[in-house]
Design brief:
By secondary structure, the protein is of the alpha/beta class. It has three domains: 145 residues, no CATH class; 118 residues, Rossmann fold (3-Layer(aba) Sandwich); 347 residues, Rossmann fold, CATH 3.40.50. 49% of the residues lie in helices and 14% in strands. The strands form five sheets. The chain has a nine-stranded mixed beta sheet with strand order 10-9-8-11-12-13-18-22-21, with helices on both faces. Strands 3-4-2-1-5-6-7 form a seven-stranded mixed beta sheet, with helices on both faces. It has a two-stranded parallel sheet with strand order 14-17. Helix 11 packs across helix 18 and helix 13 runs parallel beside helix 15.
Length: 662
């Protein structure tokens, strides 16, 4: 029995007793101080009548107040978690006891000075409130001290003294996270310099980043200006990279609108943050309307661009999506992803080559795709330099055969994925893609001039007259052909970024071909958006070109990647210059000078005017080039490609080398 009593007497009961004693003293002290203050803080100046009334009423008031406090559960709250509810209870208890005190001391013992009633109530409220919330405040300060002590080795700098920065600081302060301790803030607004946010000083603008990192021993930098323009963000992040600190950034401004910014929203600064331009955003509503209810085919649908095309197409209710790819592993991967995300999608995945006329004819005649995105191609420059015949077979002839099958089977739109390497090409891959563009322009010209039946089918093994004959079927086509040209895609298969990351993970060296080599870069979603837009805008023969901003030095890209990995270039990770690879040039061009530019409604997209050439003779030239490729005659492939693509000036002129050897 004694054990049960002892067990039932908890620690909070002891706290309650102490609180009741404190409250009894506090409520009486409050009104005594009110009298004392009323008479100029002189005890002897207090009239005897007033003091006697106070003393006689004190026991009555004490008992009444403690009962009210008990009924309002002021002795049962867990004060380490005291919040708005507890504040309301203290306010209510003060109001009730104040009214009781004012009425009954006046009725029973006589009227007191007006200041006595008012000041007494205020002091009582403060004393009762202070003891309860001071417990929480002490615990908070103790945890802050311990947290700051634990985080002292991870001092944080915040870039941005706006709402996002303030929210992140608050989240760090109120949480037990081990991210670190915010020691300073950087903001370019001069008006904020020397001022404080949550006790953290704003120490200067971007020019102060390096000195502030050293002064405050900063280990981490959080970029908290989600609305910053891309060029400004790039400039600030480049300065931050010089510090060697760990970098994180808010991905966007949507959290600000929702008031949900916290540390978990921060992500590691990615290489695309350093492109220095805004992400291209297009109005794709017309695109999605066009795709809804249509049969759409994507060749090379398992590749980087092709798979992203499939994702975006699948999300907008096509009648059927056909993925056509020669590599079954990629095709299987995107198939499983789409079926998991869109279980009701009418998806067909077919394995085949764009070089196989019979397979293409079977696919197009069976499924009748209305829109075709032709992404299948060999794209790796150095590999194509040592296999030039394969580049012609797959890229040029494969495009011809696919376009022919599309035209023959009633396709409405055919969109070719091209590259900036097709402009003044110095390698066989770029030249083959320029041939693809010329093929598209030829098909579009012939269709618009009702000469589609004059376009011959191409086959690797021709009869003696050189052409595989048409069947008896007359073709009437309304297919629109266009091409989309863009630069290097970040994160795509064969991109330099994964290669650099692999070399960094291995401890280096990071191999850069040349210190001055530059490239245009874009993100996969941007590239796909442009392709989709072209499929709506295209009236035929256009080559759409994206304004990709300023080109990026590959050397700078490599160094930034090393810094993003927490290493120092040329100290922790060496950079090695290995020289230009076969077919490479120092810079890429987006458009040939003679093509000219025409703007569209979207100022980020331009149209290159088609360069005229002899379409009939081009088909004959293409036939001879195909024969050279299938005869594995690399020297003739180079010579004939130079004859057809007059802007092709190979740095790896294999035809000349082979002739010299012969």
């Amino acid at each position: 029995m004694r054990e049960k009593v002892k067990k039932g007497f908890e620690h909070w009961h002891v706290v309650t007793v102490y609180l009741m004693i404190y409250d009894a003293i506090a409520i009486n002290l409050s009104y005594f101080l009110a009298l004392w203050l009323r008479f100029d803080c002189q005890y002897t100046a207090i009239p005897r009548d007033y003091f006697d009334s106070f003393l006689k009423f004190a026991p009555i008031y004490t008992i009444f107040s403690l009962v009210i406090f008990w009924l309002l559960r002021m002795y049962k709250s867990i004060w380490r978690f005291a919040s708005y509810t507890e504040l309301l209870r203290i306010t209510a208890s003060t109001a009730i006891t104040t009214v009781f005190h004012g009425v009954f001391i006046t009725v029973i013992f006589g009227r007191m000075p007006i200041s006595y009633y008012l000041i007494g109530a205020v002091i009582q409220f403060i004393l009762v409130l202070a003891v309860r919330f001071s417990y929480r405040f002490i615990l908070f300060q103790r945890s802050m001290f311990e947290s700051t002590k634990a985080k002292s080795d991870a001092n944080i700098m915040i870039i941005g003294a706006g709402n996002a920065g303030r929210m992140i600081i608050q989240d760090l302060m109120r949480s037990n996270r081990s991210d670190g301790n915010v020691v300073c803030i950087i903001d370019d607004n001069h008006n904020k310099w020397g001022r404080y946010i949550e006790g953290v000083p704003v120490v200067g603008g971007r020019d102060s980043i390096l000195s502030a990192v050293e002064k405050y021993k900063v280990k981490k930098i959080f970029f908290a200006i989600p609305s910053a323009p891309a060029d400004e963000k790039k400039e600030i992040l480049n300065i931050c990279h010089e510090t060697g600190c760990e970098l994180k950034s808010l991905p966007g401004i949507y959290q600000i609108a929702n008031g949900e910014v916290n540390v978990t929203d921060l992500k590691d600064v990615a290489i695309e943050d350093l492109l220095g331009r805004e992400i291209i955003k297009l109005d794709l509503e017309p695109v999605y309307k066009m795709l809804t209810g249509k049969t759409v085919m994507v060749t090379g649908g398992g590749g980087s661009i092709g798979s992203e095309l499939c994702r975006q197409i699948a999300s907008h209710n096509p009648k059927q999506l056909i993925i056509f790819d020669i590599y079954e592993n990629n095709a299987y991967a995107i198939q499983q992803e789409l079926l998991s995300k869109y279980p009701h999608l009418n998806l067909t995945v077919l394995i085949g080559s764009v070089r196989d006329s019979g397979r293409l004819q079977d696919v197009f005649s069976t499924y009748k795709p209305q829109i075709v995105y032709h992404a299948a191609a060999h794209k790796h420059v150095p590999l194509m330099e040592v296999s030039p015949c394969e580049s012609i077979k797959n890229n040029a002839i494969g495009t011809y055969k696919t376009a022919y099958a599309a035209m023959r089977n009633g396709c409405e739109r055919f969109v070719l994925i091209s590259t900036d390497k097709a402009v003044n090409p110095t390698n066989i891959m770029g030249a083959s893609k320029r041939l693809c563009e010329m093929i598209i322009q030829t098909f579009d010209y012939m269709v618009k001039n009702h000469r589609e039946n004059e376009i011959p089918p191409l086959h690797a093994h021709q009869p003696e007259d050189g052409w595989a004959p048409h069947d008896d079927k007359k073709i009437t086509s309304h297919t629109r052909f266009c091409a989309v040209r863009f630069g290097n895609v970040l994160g795509s298969n064969g991109s330099v970024i994964p290669l650099f990351k692999q070399q960094i993970a291995q401890g280096g060296p990071v191999k850069v071909t040349h210190p001055d080599i530059i490239r245009y870069f874009m993100l996969i979603p941007e590239a796909v958006s442009l392709v989709l837009q072209a499929s709506v805008m295209g009236k035929g023969s256009e080559i759409y070109v994206l304004d990709m901003g300023e080109p990026v030095k590959i050397d700078t890209l490599a160094r930034n990647l090393i810094r993003l990995s927490g290493k120092v270039p040329d100290v922790d990770i060496k950079i090695e210059y290995i020289g230009l690879r076969p077919g490479e040039k120092l810079y890429e061009e987006k458009l040939m000078a003679e093509e000219g530019l025409k703007t569209t409604d979207n100022k980020k997209i331009h149209i290159g005017q088609p360069i005229p050439f002899e379409y009939d003779s081009f088909i004959e030239d293409l036939k001879r080039l195909m024969e050279a490729a299938y005869n594995e005659d690399e020297a003739e492939v180079y010579e004939r490609t130079k004859d057809v693509v007059t802007t092709f000036h190979p740095t790896n002129d294999k035809s000349r080398k082979l002739q010299t050897i012969a």
